[in-house]
Write a structure and sequence with these properties.
It is built from no helices and 12 strands. By secondary structure, the chain is mainly β.
């Protein structure tokens, strides 16, 4: 198991933007993709987005067109650019790949006026 480091969360007004980062040592050299999940208070964890080793990206319908996942191979870092944020995007966001043994504790995103 390798712990990743997420950052970039915070408080933002509706309509605003944030960029989350997930640094996962060695994940590109290990031929791993990465996933972003989120969990709001009192709700089940929800898959948000994934990026495969070949760069193919997928998104949950709830964030499609607003969120963009990308990666920087040189930095072993995955990003989640979040635009047009809504109050319902408020959650703890974490990145992981259980198949490759990567897990993170998350970074809090709060969308509120």
């Amino acid at each position: 198991q390798v712990q990743v480091v997420e950052s970039g969360g915070g408080l933002v007004q509706p309509g605003g933007s944030l960029r989350l980062s997930c640094t996962a040592p060695g994940f590109t050299s290990n031929s791993c993709g990465m996933n972003w999940y989120r969990q709001a208070a009192g709700k089940q964890r929800e898959w948000v987005s994934s990026i495969r080793i070949d760069g193919i990206t997928t998104y949950a319908d709830s964030v499609k067109g607003r969120f963009t996942i990308s990666k920087d191979k040189a930095k072993d870092t995955v990003y989640l650019q979040m635009n047009s944020l809504k109050p319902e995007d408020t959650a703890m966001y974490s990145c992981n790949n259980p198949l490759c043994g990567y897990w993170g504790q998350g970074t809090q995103v709060t969308v509120s006026s």
